[in-house]
TrEMBL record:
CC cofactor note: Binds 2 magnesium ions per tetramer.
Keywords associated with the record: Aminoacyl-tRNA synthetase, ATP-binding, Cytoplasm, Ligase, Magnesium, Metal-binding, Nucleotide-binding, Protein biosynthesis
A GO CC annotation given for this chain: cytoplasm
Keyword Chloroplast (UniProt): no
Organism superkingdom: Bacteria
Protein name, entry field: Phenylalanine--tRNA ligase alpha subunit
Annotated binding of Mg(2+), by residue: 258
Length: 358
């Protein structure tokens, strides 16, 4: 027992010297393990007389308590140190952008639809949406397109099987049913754009079976053709970021508008490159007109009191013109090299104040 002070000092020194949890455990085993130095002294208690054992036992218990206390304190200290080191090593600033760089790109179709929505939102239009799967009424009848109209022929429209009531479901051939649904559900004044996917059974160099349109509709008591032209003029100037784009209306025919006009914008060719702005050339960008009284009537709106205009544009065509994309079919190839070239950085959200495209 004369060794106790020495063994206790050695054990406490080993605990103090441990700089890792493994070294600390080794110090514990050396003193208090099965074959440890203090445990060895505990075993010698059995060979002592009662008085001697009481005194030695108390001294041994005190030594063991002291060593255990030192072990617990050292363990807590080492664990805190290890955690601090790990936290500083693994520190993550969640406010930083992803690294090494933002890899994804926004598809030009999405970008152009966002740009168009930003321009029309500034003019006070709401964005309306509707289902891709429509019926004869919303896609055709309500739009003053009679059953024998060419647009209803099977070769243009993707039809589903016949419904129980004899009607048919179909993939919408334009976004116009969205405006029909809006007029059926709301009273004028109405001022909406309807961007989205449309489908026609047609596929060649300049047609894909799925494409995108953006259409606009304004209905109130006073809106006339002059407002239509002003609205589209404002739009093309903002969209092409050119101040003096000429806009020309050419008389046309659509079943859902009367009068109707095709919309052209001025352009020139400089060394083979197309430039939007004043020049000798004209480019068609869409169609427009005053909403046909029959269409208003079909939607429960009194054509003797209300009137308004509508227009439609193809999104792919607008994207090709603005960003010089030569081939329509490449929009749907899912080619990552193409997307890296023509796509947009996600954080560059188009706004009029910040510039549509920086
Ligand atoms: C309602 C009333 C009228 C939407 C219109 C056009 C003219 C038009 C084409 C442009 C290019 C389709 O993608 S495209 O081929 N669109 O020429 N669209 S007027 O008129 C409407 C729509 C809804 C209730």
């Amino acid at each position: 027992m004369q060794d106790l002070d020495k063994l206790q000092s050695e054990a406490l020194a080993a605990v103090a010297a441990a700089s890792t949890l493994d070294q600390l455990d080794a110090a514990r085993v050396a003193a208090l393990g099965k074959k440890g130095s203090i445990t060895g002294l505990m075993k010698s208690l059995g060979g002592m007389g009662p008085d001697e054992r009481r005194a030695a036992g108390a001294a041994l218990n005190a030594a063991r308590d002291r060593i255990e206390g030192a072990l617990a304190a050292a363990k807590a200290g080492l664990e805190t140190k290890a955690l601090d080191e790990r936290l500083s090593r693994e520190r993550l600033d969640v406010t930083l952008p992803s690294r090494p760089e933002a890899m994804g790109r926004i598809h030009p179709i999405s970008q152009v639809m966002d740009e168009m929505a930003a321009i029309f939102a500034q003019m006070g239009f709401d964005v309306a949406e509707g289902p891709d799967i429509e019926d004869d009424f919303h896609n055709f009848n309500a739009l003053n397109i009679p059953p024998e109209h060419p647009a209803r022929q099977m070769h243009d429209t993707f039809y589903f099987g016949e419904k129980a009531d004899g009607g048919r479901h179909l993939l919408r051939t334009h976004t116009s049913p969205v405006q029909i649904r809006t007029m059926l559900a709301n009273k004028p004044p109405i001022r909406i754009i309807a961007p989205g996917r449309t489908y026609r059974c047609d596929s060649d160099m300049t047609h894909t079976p799925m494409f995108h349109q953006i259409e606009g509709l304004v209905i109130d008591e006073v809106t006339h053709m002059g407002h239509l032209k002003g609205c589209l003029l404002e739009f093309v100037r903002a969209f092409f970021e050119v101040d003096d784009v000429p806009v020309r209306f050419r008389p046309s025919f659509f079943p859902f508008t009367e009068p109707s006009a095709e919309v052209d914008i001025g352009c020139s060719r400089e060394g083979g490159e197309l430039k939007i702005g004043p020049g000798a050339g004209w480019l068609e960008i869409g169609g427009s007109g005053m909403v046909h009284p029959n269409v208003l009537r079909n939607c429960g709106i009194d054509p003797d009191r209300y009137q308004g205009f509508a227009f439609g544009m193809g999104v792919e065509r607008m994207a090709m013109l603005k960003y010089g994309i030569p081939d329509l079919r490449t929009f749907f190839d899912s080619d990552l090299r193409w997307l890296k070239h023509y796509g947009f950085v996600p954080l560059d959200v188009p706004t009029l104040a910040g510039g549509l495209t920086r």
